[in-house]
Design a protein that fits this description.
InterPro entries: DIOX_N, IPNS-like_FE2OG_OXY, IPNS-like_sf, Iron_ascorbate_oxido_reductase, Oxoglu/Fe-dep_dioxygenase_dom. This protein is of the alpha+beta class. It has helices at 22-37, 50-64, 68-72, 106-111, 118-145, 152-157, 225-230, 285-292, 295-299, 303-308; strands spanning 9-11, 40-44, 84-87, 90-99, 159-168, 179-183, 189-194, 200-203, 209-211, 218-223, 240-243, 250-259, 264-265, 283-284.
Amino acid sequence: MSSELSLPVIDFCKVDLKPGTAEWDSLRSQVWKAIEEYGSFKVVFSKISQELRGTFFNELEKLFALPLQTKKSYVTEKPFRKYVGQSPSSPLNESFVIDDPLISQILEHVLWPPQGNPCFRKIMQSFSKEVFELEKIIRRMIVESLGVEKYLDEHMNSATYMLKLSKYGSPHTSEAESGLPAHTDKNLITILHQNHVDGLEVQTKDGEWIQVKFSPESFVILIGESFYAWTNGRLRSTYHRVRVNGSEARISAGFFSMFKEGYIMKAPEELVDEEHPLLFKPFDYSEFLKFFQTPAGRSSVSALEEYCGV
């Protein structure tokens, strides 16, 4: 663990940020430099009010306080979209995944039948809307930095979204460990936000681990394997892990953008040349996730390379 290294911090507090302006170009340059060097960076984003942030985490506290049998009732047919928690292997970890949180009502009607929980839904939607607008800005800046704006509309319209709500219990109340092992995300971009309890660590390209310190207005941006594939290796997917050591539980929200089901991901031809030969065959992200759930996918050093590597 490095006590000297820290993730770059980029201020996105400017409300009227618009493409083509000097402010946009300056931020875009900072974003590109950060992801080239770290594959990750921290954003200061004040557009979400203190009141909404507080209400958001209050609702998550109530969510995880529901009876275990109630939480276990939340299951869906799609991969990873369900409640996972309190298993023998990781008894302190819990999570819910909401598919397309901007419109989904499935979770609230399963956990709070029959009338649902309109307050919970409204808060999740309001918070997610602001975060995913930030994601779109960052993804657009990356496409522009690569000089492949001709694909911008298709690329922006090819994405869908997912929200993962996680709780990592205090290890001081148990002999079990609390956290997640080192991994890369499979999607395009992940944006992480949390309560006041730290635990996220990000690995540099030199193999050193950075312990990330959050402020109430900070979000961490991580590049996923799908973006690594779409850019034909120009970006690297970021290894990260969670290790909670304190006496309080860490509650976090992960906002994930990914390719829509049925969309065939293909690297732009401008990003393939002699110095950058094609790394991956075109693939459907949803089919890749199904492979990742198989024993072969889970045991592979690189599931994506195993699935569709050239």
